[in-house]
Amino acid sequence: MDKPERPKLKRLAGGRALPEQAVDIPSAPCFVARAATQSRAGDRRQSKIGGLPYFPDGEAWPACKGCGAPLTFLAQFKSADAPGMIAAPARMLVMFYCFACAPFWDVEGRGFWAMLTPFEPFAPLLPEKKMPIDPHTPPELALRFAKTKDHPAPTEWPASGGLSDWERNELAARRPNVAKTKLGGFPSWCQSPDAPRCRECGQAMRFIGQLVSDIGLGLHFPDGGRLYLFECLAPHDGEVPLSIVMQTE
Questions:
Q1: Which DSSP symbol is given to 237?
Q2: What pLDDT, in 10s, does the model give residues 53-88?
Q3: Residues spanned by the domain of 232
Q4: Which residues, in sequence order, are bridge partners of residue 83?
Q5: Cβ-count burial of 15 within 10 angstroms (0-12 exposed, 13-18 middle, 19+ buried)?
Q6: In the chain, is it the N or the C terminus that has fewer CB atoms within a 10 Å radius of its CB?
């Protein structure tokens, strides 16, 4: 008599094994931001933290809709540096934030502004003399990106067959969520998942990336916060709707 076929098992550290279907955790590529080995000081057409932004000449500097103060330039990311992570090609994603209001949400567009502007190597940019002096602007740091595989945090895993805490911890170590400044992948929530819906059409939004408080990158948000950015992929007239969520540890 033939013996019954046993389910396939995956071994974990410590000698324990789990059914194959219990470890079906999704993955996606992401690009982790790191300090560039060769910095181009003052280059406004590179991906970077702080300094002077890629900001088209003729545009008005964004102001906080809550307190009216000029917003702080945080970071910018060139879509070509992280292929496929920003839906629109040949774009520069430029991000601003109000440290005075420190909003957790931008439901009313208060205290946050971002733009996906076409990237043109020789486009005229806003002169420095027309920019506000802002003590909150991070020091300039040119960025490079390292591609890796990302996984959702355990709070967003699909049904996992009643895994024990020990088993979940082991799986989390083998399928890590990259809790760093990155483009693409999955959010590294400090608290419960809080993905927004588009304030214009109500559709679920796509995660673009996150900024994480990191001494090495010169980023610091109150209480070690993290800023998460989302875009709407539904058709819209004009600019792509963007939304922010911030959480603190």
A1: S
A2: 999 999 999 999 888 999 999 999 999 999 999 887
A3: 26-247
A4: none
A5: exposed
A6: N
